[in-house]
């Protein structure tokens, strides 16, 4: 019996890669120094997996920014607009690579970044491949071959190259012109995959992993045919290597026969997300195929329940024999924090219930040992699992009773939107194309150092609060001078939009080093929901009330919504997710009412992750959308009609859920649209979205500063699709990760764009 891992976190235990990349972008270190940091992390990762006893260890899962961006470079899928970057003296592959990810605004060039969106239903963002009808593919990078060569030195035959599979690579991309379907490019793409695989075979590869998460999605007939064609074409032109195709995040369902009959050596299935699929897989699996059973959760922090995992493993062994079963995590451990041993402050009673990436490797190895007869490991695991289920730290009856008492009235605003809209226009007297930002302003080194000093006890609470007050006042004065219509306080007191709230809610715990990559150098440290959730005191009122008192302009109260808090936390797995969400919703509702009572007339409840939580299969979506929308409405519906409720959503495709977005009944929704050139607005236009909307005109995930003319052009496109009187002007997202100079320059252009729009774009009263 073999064990394997599908992927490992690449940021380093102390976020070394993040810091190195940011220093490289800032010109503080050179390429050799950046590469040395990456080399050290990669070698440490391999040694960790080797020492854990994993039999097949991934290579090429390491990336400076994103695995899909790596594939773009490998396959030569480089949009034409980046050609000038390669012609700048001194530029090399890494400059092109980062230009595609972040945009390029120097050397008299101004090139936008590639589009970014969520990796299936995770909070990880990937760079979206851009395809044209005449797209050509060729090997354009040596990274995969160099990483395998290095891996082979460290790992020997355990080294297993990892690539995004050809069909998923196409399906997760986007057509950049009309007249073709990207899946039709498969016949051009497969020969390059064959060339890559054969080169890896020549280097000595015995196993190669191809990630095909799209096998767990709803597929058209043509897409299914693309899978069959691709793998038969590859199989016919390679020999001497075993291909393992990895699926994850959902059951195969109607794609089961397709996946099981691909000409490959092994198929990986996610039995954490979809354990029910095992019976059908075992009933249909051909005699030639090995089965990789993903029984250790790669996306959460809870200790594996060995009894449950062993029940699945033994069923597979009974049917296949132990030599055809591979034990593995459910998916890449990219989505997990790195090492629980680094956490010294977690309640020991709770810590014993947890496992991070390093510990999950141990769980995979221990499951194999238990199958081989080491039952002492099973008994120790049983003890930990039992202590959690019986713990009084987890369960609070008063919270459970309050959730049970939620009614339809709790999720319904007093009046319909047209009535509320008129009240808002009278109350706030805003111009057409009102300007605002999404909430956060740059978290400078000074602010971070201030927070660190306070946590260490080097500052008193009074000193800390005074410094934050001064930063808040400065931000307000700057917004007033600039002419922004609806202000924000900047959120200088907040570390993270979810962590900040979790720290003030019962039922959450926090880690010191539990970082996971969100995109590029952006790392987040999700809270851990271990028990029933309640709000013991006000969370944001103090700072929102202070900020509102500093200005005569409208000030937004800023909150994170229940679904986003759920999605961006590590969630307890011992009760349904909708129950946990409703617990959070009631806590946020109490905060909304407290903000309204404190005089805040505009309250933003961010639901950046509501689309992210959508089940991958359409048949499962209605139930999720019902409870997710209801939870948002519970948070927002206690206020008076005169209070304006905003929400914000990040990178999302809205076409298939637009009616549910409308059902949230937010007075104003702000969304990302700049990278897609307002393309996402077509869903709102086709639906005739009734409420107000702020389509982002400034891509905050890139350091480039868009011009006023560029933003006016975007607003013109928006006004062609939606009623101009309902449009707001704002960035794509919060500005926390940006620097002040680029932020100020971009927002100055944004305000100027709004003023131009008021004179150039017709608005019907």
UniProtKB/TrEMBL annotation:
Q: What is its EC number?
A: 2.1.1.14
- What keywords are assigned to this protein? Amino-acid biosynthesis, Metal-binding, Methionine biosynthesis, Methyltransferase, Repeat, Transferase, Zinc
This enzyme catalyses:
5-methyltetrahydropteroyltri-L-glutamate + L-homocysteine = tetrahydropteroyltri-L-glutamate + L-methionine
Domain (Cobalamin-independent methionine synthase MetE C-terminal/archaeal) spans 433-755
Q: Where does Zn(2+) bind?
A: 648, 650, 672, 733
Against Pfam families, the record matches this protein to: Meth_synt_1 (PF08267), Meth_synt_2 (PF01717)
Q: Name one GO biological process term.
A: methylation
The positions annotated for binding 5-methyltetrahydropteroyltri-L-glutamate are 118, 522-523, 568, 612
The residues that hold L-methionine are 438-440, 491, 606
- SUPFAM superfamilies given in the database record: UROD/MetE-like
Q: Which residues bind L-homocysteine?
A: 438-440, 491, 606
InterPro entries of this UniProt entry? Cbl-indep_Met_Synth_N (IPR013215), Cobalamin-indep_Met_synthase (IPR006276), Met_Synth_C/arc (IPR002629), UROD/MetE-like_sf (IPR038071)
Q: Which residues form the active site?
A: 701
For whether the record's keyword set contains Hydrolase, the answer is: no
Note on how the cofactor is bound:
Binds 1 zinc ion per subunit.
Q: In the record, what terms sit under GO molecular function?
A: 5-methyltetrahydropteroyltriglutamate-homocysteine S-methyltransferase activity
Cofactors named for this entry = Zn(2+)
Pathway assigned to this chain's UniProt record: Amino-acid biosynthesis; L-methionine biosynthesis via de novo pathway; L-methionine from L-homocysteine (MetE route): step 1/1
Which part of the chain is the Cobalamin-independent methionine synthase MetE N-terminal domain?
3-316
Function of the molecule: Catalyzes the transfer of a methyl group from 5-methyltetrahydrofolate to homocysteine resulting in methionine formation.
As for family, the record states: Belongs to the vitamin-B12 independent methionine synthase family.
Name listed for the protein in its UniProt record: 5-methyltetrahydropteroyltriglutamate--homocysteine methyltransferase
Organism classification, top ranks? Answer: Bacteria, Pseudomonadati, Bacteroidota, Sphingobacteriia, Sphingobacteriales
């Amino acid at each position: 019996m073999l064990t394997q891992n599908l992927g490992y976190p690449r940021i380093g235990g102390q976020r070394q890669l993040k810091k190195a990349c940011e220093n490289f972008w800032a010109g503080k270190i050179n390429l050799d120094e950046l590469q040395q940091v990456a080399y050290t992390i990669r070698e440490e990762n391999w040694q960790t997996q080797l020492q854990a006893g994993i039999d097949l260890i991934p290579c090429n899962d390491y990336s400076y920014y994103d695995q899909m961006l790596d594939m773009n470079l490998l396959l030569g899928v480089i949009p034409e607009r980046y050609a000038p970057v390669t012609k700048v003296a001194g530029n090399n592959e890494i400059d092109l690579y980062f230009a595609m990810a972040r945009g390029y605004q120097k050397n008299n060039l101004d090139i936008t970044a590639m589009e970014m969106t969520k990796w299936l239903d995770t909070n990880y963002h990937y760079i979206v491949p851009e395809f044209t009808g005449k797209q050509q593919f060729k090997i354009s990078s040596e990274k995969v071959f160099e990483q395998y060569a290095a891996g082979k030195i460290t790992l020997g035959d355990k080294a297993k190259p990892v690539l995004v599979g050809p069909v998923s690579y196409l399906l997760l991309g986007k057509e950049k012109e009309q007249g073709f379907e990207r899946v039709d490019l498969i016949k051009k793409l497969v020969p390059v995959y064959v060339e890559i695989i054969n080169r890896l075979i020549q280097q000595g590869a015995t196993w190669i992993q191809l990630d095909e998460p799209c096998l767990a999605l709803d597929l058209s007939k043509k897409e299914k045919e693309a899978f069959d064609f691709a793998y038969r074409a590859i199989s016919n032109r390679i020999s001497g290597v075993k291909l393992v195709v990895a699926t994850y995040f959902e059951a195969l369902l109607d794609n089961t026969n397709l996946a099981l009959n691909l000409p490959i050596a092994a198929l990986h299935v996610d039995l954490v997300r979809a354990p029910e699929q095992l019976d059908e897989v075992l009933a249909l699996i051909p005699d030639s195929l090995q089965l990789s059973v993903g029984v250790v959760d790669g996306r959460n922090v809870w200790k594996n329940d060995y009894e449950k995992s062993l029940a699945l493993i033994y069923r597979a062994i009974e049917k296949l024999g132990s030599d055809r079963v591979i034990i593995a995590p459910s998916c890449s451990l990219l989505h997990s924090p790195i090492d629980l041993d680094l956490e010294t402050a977690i309640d020991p009673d709770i810590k014993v219930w947890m496992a991070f990436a390093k510990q999950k490797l141990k769980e995979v190895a221990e499951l194999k040992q238990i199958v081989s007869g080491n039952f002492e490991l099973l008994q120790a695991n049983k003890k930990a699992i039992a202590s959690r289920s019986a713990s009084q730290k987890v369960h609070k009856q008063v919270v459970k009773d309050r959730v049970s008492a939620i009614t339809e009235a709790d999720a319904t605003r007093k009046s319909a939107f047209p009535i509320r809209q008129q009240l808002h226009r009278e109350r706030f007297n805003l111009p057409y194309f009102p300007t605002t930002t999404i909430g956060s302003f740059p978290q400078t080194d000074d602010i971070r150092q201030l927070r660190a000093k306070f946590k260490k006890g080097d500052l008193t609470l009074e000193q800390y609060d005074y410094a934050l007050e001064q930063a808040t006042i400065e931000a307000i004065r700057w917004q007033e001078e600039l002419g922004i219509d609806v202000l924000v306080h900047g959120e200088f007191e907040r570390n993270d939009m979810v962590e900040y709230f979790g720290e003030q809610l019962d039922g959450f715990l926090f880690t010191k080093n539990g970082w996971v990559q969100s995109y590029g150098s952006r790392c987040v440290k999700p809270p851990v929901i271990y028990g029933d959730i309640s709000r013991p005191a006000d969370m944001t009122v103090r700072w929102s009330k202070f900020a509102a008192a500093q200005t005569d302009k409208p000030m937004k109260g800023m909150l994170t919504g229940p679904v986003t808090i759920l999605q961006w936390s590590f969630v307890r797995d011992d009760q349904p997710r909708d129950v946990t969400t409703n617990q959070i919703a009631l806590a946020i509702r109490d905060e909304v009412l407290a903000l309204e009572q404190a005089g805040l007339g505009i309250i933003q409840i961010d639901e950046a992750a509501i689309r992210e939580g959508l089940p991958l299969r359409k048949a499962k979506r209605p139930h999720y959308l019902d409870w997710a929308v209801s939870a948002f409405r519970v948070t927002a519906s206690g206020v008076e009609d005169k209070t304006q409720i905003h929400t914000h959503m990040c990178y999302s495709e809205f076409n298939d859920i637009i009616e549910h977005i409308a059902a949230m009944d937010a007075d104003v929704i702000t969304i990302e649209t700049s990278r897609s050139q307002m393309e996402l607005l077509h869903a709102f236009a086709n639906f005739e979205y009734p409420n107000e909307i702020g389509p982002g005109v400034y891509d905050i995930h890139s350091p480039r500063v868009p011009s006023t003319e560029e933003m006016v052009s975007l607003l013109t496109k928006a006004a062609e699709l939606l009623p101009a009187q309902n449009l707001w002007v704002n960035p794509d997202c919060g500005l926390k990760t940006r620097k002040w100079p680029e932020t100020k320059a971009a927002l100055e252009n944004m305000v100027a764009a709004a003023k131009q729009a008021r004179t150039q774009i017709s608005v019907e009263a």
